[in-house]
Design brief:
- The complex is a heterodimer.
- Chain A is mainly alpha-helical.
- Chain A has 10 helices and no strands.
- Chains A and B meet through helix 2, helix 3, helix 6, helix 7 and helix 9 of A and helix 1, helix 3, helix 4, helix 5 and helix 7 of B.
Chain lengths: 194, 166
C-alpha cells in the first residue's frame, strides 16, 4: 500500500513538471520491466531497447494514468504489449505456452551451462536458471506473480486473460518449473527441499 | 482432467489462498489423514517459498536510468486523452449512424406489402425495395462492415479459447 501511494505521489510531481522525479520510478521498476522484455526476446540488447521504449511511452502517456489500478499493473501491461509488438515487428516468433518444441531445444542447449552455474551458485541461481528454461509466457506469469507482486486479477489485466485462465496458466507454469528443476537440478533441489 | 491433477491444482489454490471454504476443509482433511498428500503439500509449499524468496529480476545496464532520462528530456507528456476526446462527439456520431440505419430499415419495411395474397408464389422481389444505386452501395458497405466486425469477434474468441487451453 505504501508503494502504491508513493508511486501516485511521484506521478503527481512528474505531472506538475518535476521531470527528475520520474527517475525514481525508472529505478524502482527497471529490473522487472527489463525482465519482462527479456522473457519475451531472450536477448539482452533487444530487451534493453524495449525497456527503454516502455519507460518513454509511459512518460508520454502519464497523464492518461487514472490511478484506479496500481501503477505497476499499468506499467507491466504496457511492458507486455510493447514486447509482443516488438517481436511482431521484427517478425520473431511470439512464443506461446504450447511451444514446447522450441523450448526443448533451448533446454538442451542451456541446461549444461545452467548446471555449471548452479554448482557455483545458490538457491537464487537455481530458481532463476530454471525460469530461463521456461517458455516466455510461463516465465512472465511466474515473475509477475512471485516478484512483481501482482494478483491473479492484475496478471489477467496485464496479459488480457481471464482470472481463471491466469490461474490455469500459473499452475502449469509452476508444474513445468518443478519439472525443469527436477530434470536438470535434481540433487540441488533435493538438498533444498530435504 | 483426472482426480490427481485436480487435487494438485486445488493444493496450489489452497497455498495461494484462493480456494473456497469447502475446498479448504476438504484439502485440510485430505492432508491430515493421508501422509502421501501431506508430503505432496509440503513439497509444493517448499517450491512456493523457494520461488517467493529466490526469484530475482534481471538487471539492465548501469546506464539504463540515465539513457531513459536523456530520451525523456527530448519528450513531452501528452495531454490526457480524456481532455481532447469528447465523449459527446463520439456518442453523436454513433447516434447519427444508428438513426440513418434505422431510417433505411423503417423505410424498407413500410414499402413491403404485408398482405398475403394466398398464391403459391412466395418469391420476394428485393429490387422493388432496394432499387437505388446509392442505397445498394450503402447497404453493401454495412454488410461488409458487419462481416469485418463478425470476423474480428470470431478471431478474438478463438484467441481467448487458445489462451485458455494453453
Amino acid at each position: 500500500m505504501y508503494i502504491v501511494q508513493d508511486d501516485n505521489e511521484i506521478i503527481r510531481r512528474v505531472l506538475l513538471g518535476d521531470r527528475q522525479a520520474y527517475a525514481q520510478l525508472v529505478k524502482q521498476y527497471q529490473n522487472l520491466v527489463f525482465s519482462i522484455a527479456l522473457r519475451y526476446t531472450q536477448n539482452r540488447e533487444d530487451a534493453e531497447e524495449i525497456a527503454q521504449d516502455i519507460f518513454i511511452k509511459v512518460y508520454r502517456s502519464l497523464a492518461d494514468f487514472r490511478a484506479n489500478s496500481k501503477f505497476s499493473t499499468w506499467l507491466y501491461t504496457i511492458a507486455a504489449n510493447t514486447s509482443i509488438t516488438f517481436l511482431r515487428k521484427k517478425k520473431l516468433p511470439v512464443h506461446s505456452l504450447d511451444n514446447e518444441k522450441i523450448f526443448h531445444l533451448a533446454d538442451t542447449r542451456n541446461a549444461a551451462t545452467a548446471v555449471a552455474d548452479i554448482e557455483r551458485g545458490s538457491h537464487v541461481t537455481l530458481v532463476n536458471k530454471a525460469i530461463q528454461l521456461l517458455s516466455p509466457d510461463d516465465a512472465t506469469v511466474i515473475t509477475l506473480f512471485y516478484k512483481a507482486e501482482q494478483s491473479i486479477e492484475e496478471i489477467g489485466k496485464i496479459t488480457g486473460l481471464t482470472p481463471n485462465a491466469v490461474k490455469v496458466k500459473l499452475h502449469r507454469a509452476r508444474k513445468r518449473l518443478k519439472e525443469k528443476m527436477e530434470m536438470h537440478f535434481k540433487s540441488e533441489l533435493k538438498e533444498i527441499i530435504n | 482432467m483426472n482426480a490427481q491433477q485436480l487435487t494438485e491444482e486445488q493444493l496450489w489454490n489452497y497455498i495461494d489462498g484462493s480456494c473456497n471454504a469447502a475446498e479448504k476443509a476438504m484439502i485440510e482433511e485430505l492432508c491430515n489423514n493421508n501422509p502421501q498428500w501431506q508430503k505432496r503439500y509440503n513439497e509444493l509449499l517448499e517450491l512456493h517459498q523457494l520461488m517467493h524468496e529466490n526469484i530475482e529480476p534481471d538487471q539492465p545496464s548501469m546506464r539504463f536510468t540515465k539513457n531513459v532520462m536523456d530520451e525523456i528530456a527530448k519528450s513531452r507528456i501528452a495531454p490526457a486523452a480524456r481532455t481532447y476526446i469528447n465523449k459527446k462527439i463520439i456518442y453523436g456520431i454513433a447516434a447519427f449512424f444508428i438513426l440513418i440505419i434505422s431510417g433505411f430499415l423503417i423505410y424498407g419495411f413500410t414499402q413491403v406489402e404485408w398482405k398475403f395474397s394466398g398464391s403459391s408464389d412466395y418469391t420476394i422481389n428485393i429490387s422493388r425495395y432496394f432499387n437505388n444505386t446509392l442505397l445498394n452501395i450503402f447497404m453493401l458497405l454495412n454488410i461488409l462492415l458487419a462481416l469485418v466486425l463478425f470476423d474480428r469477434y470470431i478471431r478474438r474468441k478463438k484467441n481467448e479459447s487458445a489462451h485458455k487451453e494453453g
